[in-house]
Amino acid sequence: MTAVTGETPLQGNGLLGQPLDSREDPQLLRGEATYVGDIDLPGTAHMAILGSPVAHAKILSIDTKAAEQLPGVLKVATAADFTDVMPLPCIWIPGGVESHFPPHPYGLPGSRPVLSGDTVRHVGDPIAAVVAETPRQAAAALAAISVEYEPLTVVTRADEAVAEGAPQLHEAVPGNLNAYWTCGDKDRTDAAIAAAEVTVELDLVNQRTINSPIEPRGAVGDYNAATGEYTLYASTQGPHNHRFLLSALVLGIPFNKLRVVAPTVGGSFGTKGYLYPDMPLVLLLSKALGRPVKWVDTRTGLMNSTVQGRDHRQHVTLAGTRDGRITAVRCTSYANLGAYPSTIGPGVATALMGRSISGMYDIDAAFCEVYAAFTNTVPLGAQRGSGRAEAAFLMERLVDRYASEIGMDPAAVRRKNLVPKEKFPYDNGLGWTYDSGDYQLNFDRAIELSGYADMPARKTEARARGKRLGVGIASYVAICGVGPSTRMSQEGMLGGTWESANIRVHPTGEVTVTVGSASTGQSHGTVFAQVAADELGIDPATVQVYEGDTLKAPYGQGTYGSRSYSMAAPAIALTARKIKSKLVKAGAVFLGVPEDKVVYADGKVFEEGNEQNTKTFAELAMAMWYGWGLPPEIEPALDETTHFDPPDFNYPFGTHVAVVEIDELTGETEVVAYTAVDDAGHIGNPKIVLGQIEGSILHGLGQALMEHAEYDPDGRLVSRDLGHYALPRAIDAPFFTLDKTTTPSPHNPLGAKGAGEIATVPPAAAVVNAVVDALSDLGVRHIDMPVTPEKVWRRLRGESQ
User: Of all residues in the chain, what percent carry a pLDDT higher than 90?
Assistant: First the structure.
């Protein structure tokens, strides 16, 4: 259940800020949406991929003869079939430092081959592909492929991978170290820690977790021999980026010969923005067989092949005064990149985490160092809140430890150290410059709504019921709105991060908006129509939004990093303003008055002071379509495009408060109340954002209480399916109290900040802080995630975890 305060629209100006129903929901609820799995082209054959059963080994031989003879089998492919296909590239490297990657023919950072032919480096590493008439026949043929391996030593932890004597994964990466990356001022921070009145230290494990969208990945490849054109239907966040990377850097085909289409995508949470071997495989095998080839992953397959998240081992230190002033924070982190660098994994593990460790606090000295290493695990990628969630966890755990050490209330310590609003824009000393905020207002609102002052009495009442009640606070700042392109290049991004939008007005007055972004379930069609309709003063029902198809949409970057509303929506707004500007110029002709006397308002132009002399939007659309009487400087028709590249990122923020009850007999932890006050600037559709906030919180609670991608010493994933990997269910959702503050960003014309993943950033810290609070009288100072009932039960009985 959710209690939501502040129901008044945030902007209160036209359509933006109005909680319109999602136009996408009906087809989703009725099961009428088209996912990759629903695409059945005439003559489609089906692909299955053989993944390695061992984590690290030399491939001595592969025998496919028996598989080739099975009923329905059309082709069995191995690495030997694709010697002219380039490996997948990595496009986000740790910026500003020396880094090491597997090679790529173009001199770029390489990632992995389409199929491994000599060495496998994690369980699930693809080594062969079968195409058959049916999915069942393809899957059955996998078992008939005989592979001989020479086992190699396995390493699954980043800190162990960079230790002397560790097994080597890639010849081009000495000591498995992708990069040693730093930010902040080391000398200043070390001096502040040495001079501090109080220091606290923690060893933290931000455990690896598995992204679990409701739809696993899928791909359909269709090659047209007559035209030499390829079409890829894929469950992807970035169809335009995938088109470029696949055509130019993997297949080596002309850019114009590849079309990428993202149909309905059933969630992503960061997993579907990457190149995976299945994408080039379905295209290559379609060409080889002369018919479409389809692949849809299984849940177990997803867990062994789709990028995983988090996975840092950290030693962290906070320094401060006896009266609660934080003077320094330091972090040493070992980040596990997995067996190969995913498309953007190294940037996720370094900049997004390291530059974010100071959170909402005004700290004089900060330093972070990251050892990014390769191990025999599934490659690391983004997961909702990636980097920022790990940073918030370490900082908020440290603040609670510090408060305990000096005998000060955790809320009071936080309040004393918040960045004051007069300091914005604020340089956090680690590489981010926060754009705007009123952290004090936001923090106080969360504390008030949570009933924080009543917690002592509630603890007493809970103990009478055999429960231990604890309260935990976590504040955060989340870098979002990925762009600007130049700034991202400094962080090691090998490409642009701007966004684009086109608006075309039809002669009927109806409007088509096409954007480079690509929805993975965020109701873009609803919200982007609101933006265009609000700017143009028209009914949003007359606005159609197209995205996710490289044939229809302009080039764009896609959906990731909570960027769609603060990047694509401003591009739409700016394009709509170009349309309005053109209509004002044309309106002077149609109305017979000077341009400075033409007013555009409420979807029409009229003469200033004489609203009887007017033209409606529909009339203007038709007039521009005909183009009669227009002077040479005004082109007929209404068709405009904008490419938006902001001056800087945007920085949403907030404070969350979790209240837990622990059963003293079983150790079971229940989140009984959860308060979240987030600030995402001006919000386009509060109803959509509310759903994202709720889902994000539950995602974060999952990591805190139950989720863990656990590997055994041989590199096999223990949590290989949903019978071994726990996810939050409806029964695990607490009662939410949600509110917002509104601090517009100056970096885009809508004043928007990212919202889609921000509420995933603080929950793990808030919940663990609450658990430790509930157990503090037993001398418990920390407990590793996930906080399982067994761990808590042992702590209740005086055992270490």
Answer: 95
* Tens-place pLDDT, residues 699-732: 999 999 999 999 999 999 999 899 999 999 999 9
As a whole number of angstroms, the distance between CA 282 and CA 519 comes to: 23
Q: Which distant-in-sequence residues (6+ apart) come within 8 Å of 34 by Cβ?
A: 263, 264
**Would the pTM count as exceeding 0.90?**
yes
The residues near 527 (Cβ < 8 Å, ≥ 6 apart) are 565, 569, 684, 685, 688
DSSP 32: -
Say whether 634 sits in a helix, a strand or coil.
coil
Q: How far does the chain reach from its first CA to its final CA, in angstroms?
A: 33
Instruction: Count other C-beta atoms under 10 Å from residue 104's C-beta.
Output: 17
Residue 450 CA to residue 454 CA, distance in Å, equals 9
Q: How far apart are CA 252 and CA 245, in angstroms?
A: 9
Question: Could you read off the pLDDT of 113-158 as tens digits, one per residue?
Answer: 999 999 999 999 999 999 999 999 999 999 999 999 999 999 999 9
Cβ neighbours of residue 489 closer than 8 Å, sequence gap 6 or more: none
**pLDDT exceeds cutoff 80 at 4:** no
Tell me which residue of 362, 360, 361, 354 sits closest to 330, measured CA to CA. Answer: 354
Query: How many whole angstroms from its chain centre is CA 195?
Result: 39
> Residue 380's beta-bridge partner residues?
308
Burial 278-299 (b: 16+ CB within 10 A, else e): bbbbbbbbbbebebbbbbbbee
